Structure formats: C-alpha cells, structure tokens
Amino acid sequence: MLKTLRISPPAARRRPPDLTPVMDVVFILVVFFMVVSTFSQTLVKPLTVTVPGTAEAVPSPVEPRVLVLDASGNVLDGEPVTDLAAALAGDTSTPLSIVAGNAASYQALVDALDAAQIAGIDDVRVRAAGDGQ
Amino acid sequence: MSGFSLPRPQRHSRGISILPLINVVFLLLIFIVLSGVIAAPDPFELMPAQASAGEEVDGADGETTVYVSGSGALRFRELSDEAAIVALIAQLAGTDVLATLTLRADAAVPAVRIVKLVESLRATGITRIQLQAERRP
C-alpha cells in the first residue's frame, strides 16, 4: 500500500494589500480638483438698460427718482446719501434712474443695483452721465 | 544576588498603517469634488464686482460671457476687438446659442464704460444681458 506523502502547505500569511499606489492616485486626484475648482459663489443680476432714442426707451408716466453715482458719493434726487439701501427702501413703486458719473466705478454701479434689488424696486434704468433721456 | 530578567517582547516590525490616512484623503477628495465648481479660468486676471443679492449660478459659461478687464480690455470667445465682438454678438443674437449674454467685469472698470458697452450690446438685439458678481463674503 502506497503511503501518500503529504506536504503541508506553507502557512498562509494573510497580508493586507499594498495601498501605496491607491494613495498615489488619490493624492493626484485631490491636487487636481483643488487646482481646477473654484469655491467662490457667483451671482448674476439681470440688467435692463433702456437705450435713449429707441422704441424701448418709453418715458415712464411717473417721474423717476434719479440716483447719481460719482466720486463725491451717491446723490439721490439732489440729496447726498450714505446708506443707499435705507434711502431706496422708502418708495419702491417709483422707477429709479441710475446715472453713472464719469468717476464712478463698476463696483459702485453694482452696489446701486444691489441696493435697488434689495429694496424691491422693479423698474430700474441705468444710463451714463451726459446721455440725455 | 541574582536578578531575573523578563524576556523582551518580540517586536513586530510592521509598516505604519496608512488606512486612516486614506480615509482622511478620501474625505478630502469628496469634499473638494462636491463643494468646488470646475469652471474655465478667466482670460485675464480680474477682480469681479461683489454683490449681496442676485441669482446664484455655477461659474461662468465662457461661451456666452463677455469679459472686461480692469484696464477696460474686452474678451468674448477668442475676440478682443470691441467692434468685432459687437458684430459677432449681433450675428448670434437671434439664435439659441446666445439667449442670455453675461458680462463679467472687473470692479475697478469705470461704470460709464460698462453702461456704454451694454447699450451697444443692446442695440444688437440681444434680449437678456446679466451682470455677474461674486457673493460678498
């Protein structure tokens, strides 16, 4: 009778898989997304600008309030204003005409549009100083 | 006096476990993917105006955005000449490609420049123009 010779298999040592390549890939992904992502929140404002002399520039039946933006600050109907949002909040039904002076920056214009939007004024017109309307 | 000594515990020299590191890095990855927006970079360095009210959007669509740099230079798609930009927008104004035009301008640009630009863009027949700003922190 043949005796079977048994060779015991080597004790299986369970080693965890090597995760270093995974880490390499994940680090590269992290760096990639950090570089290409932007985290700032972007807002948009719809803008309605009536061009003088076109059919759209229908004169409103109500005399609009005029907000002049210039280097010296904001002037609403001849009165200098510091807190624009509060000054505009009083009367939201009257149209607002924003006149951008030569020294006003785009930020000042956006601030004025912002204040008008917060105040809830629907009819806002923008024109450059010097353009008659 | 004979002292006795305990046998030293056998040291297993194992590699440092990197599983916690992978956990953290994966969390970081998921956070960045979820919170960030992949957007085309601006054609030139510009500090957009800041606002606190407005409709929130995901980044800028480079195809429908007119960029205005701090010095007043323009860029729309590959064009930088104002007359050419206005001509192209006039061509696209009626189509679905350009239903809404977005203006992304530097905060330091004179407001008059933007107003005049918007007026000439409006004259092309484009119906919706929107100004883009970043949320004030």
What would you say this structure looks like, in words?
The complex is a heterodimer of chains A (133) and B (137). With 133 residues, chain A is an alpha/beta fold. In chain A, 28% of the residues lie in helices and 23% in strands. Chain A contains three helices and seven strands, in the order αβββββαβαβ. Chain A has a five-stranded mixed beta sheet, covered by helices on one side. The longest helix of chain A is centred in the first third of the chain and has 17 residues. About 4% of the residues of chain A have low confidence. Chain B is of the alpha/beta class and 137 residues long. Helices cover 29% and strands 20% of the residues of chain B. Chain B contains three helices and seven strands; from the N terminus they run αβββββαβαβ. A five-stranded mixed beta sheet of chain B has the order 2-7-6-4-5, with helices on one face. Chain B is rod-shaped and about 100 Å long. The mean pLDDT of chain B is 82. The interface between A and B is large, with 46 and 54 residues.
